[in-house]
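To assess whether ligand presence alters the predicted conformation, the chain was also submitted together with zinc ion. Input:
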Amino acid sequence: MADCLFCKIIQKEIPSEIIHQDDDITIFKDINPSAPVHLLVIPNKHIPSVTEMTPIDELILGKLFSGAKRAAKNMGIDKTGYRLIMNNGPDAHQEIFHIHMHLLGGGEMKHPMG
Ligand code: AMP
Ligand code: ZN
């Protein structure tokens, strides 16, 4: 997608701190972290939101979880825990319309959410 910020990050057209990239997903540091560890796990395919996903996307979106699990271990927060969040649409304050999973950890978070 020509004017998508996250597609540009995937293509390395704009700089970011990418910590993992393979054929299916990219993981990079959030530019405005909300926790000591705040990563974004995204599919390389441009899918705007969960609302727009199709059954064809199920496999690739499943890979976001495997990527998050691996990244949490690499960051040393797999035992202490982490939160995975996908904001979807206006009420959830989705700002970037390229599906992304937030991986937050490195400290105890507020509970309950919302
Ligand atoms: P959301 O509100 O769920 O759409 O989250 C978008 C996230 O993208 C926010 O946490 C932003 O801090 C993050 N973000 C925006 N621009 C960049 C960028 N250039 N590099 C890394 N993270 C970014
Ligand atoms: Zn995109």
